[in-house]
Amino acid sequence: MYMTVQETATFLSMPEEQVNRYVLEGRIRAVHDGEQYIINTSQFEAHFQQLEQAKLALEEWRTMPIPEDVDIKDED
């Protein structure tokens, strides 16, 4: 599915100027159709999957219980 820069900015929740800059830098692949850049949204699927995996890993780490037997020497 192709979207305009404005639609992509809304989709990614970032400013339109930043999406334009990323397109010009080559960080977001886009095609110029003569009037505007159009962006294939399938390139973001891997990014969103990685974000979801990172969120799950962080939540798993946060819910991991602290070990009962902590071997720490108190030097006070």
UniProtKB/TrEMBL annotation:
Q: Which NCBIfam families match?
A: excise
InterPro entries in the cross-refs:
HTH_17, SinI_DNA-bd
Is this entry keyworded DNA-binding?
yes
Pfam families in alphabetical order: HTH_17
Name of the protein in its database record: DNA-binding protein
**In terms of domain of life, where is this protein from?**
Bacteria
Q: Which UniProt keywords apply?
A: DNA-binding
Statement: the UniProt record of this protein carries the keyword RNA-binding: no
First and last residue of the signal peptide: none
**Gene Ontology MF annotations:** DNA binding
From which source organism is this entry?
Planococcus faecalis
Q: Where is the Helix-turn-helix domain?
A: 2-50
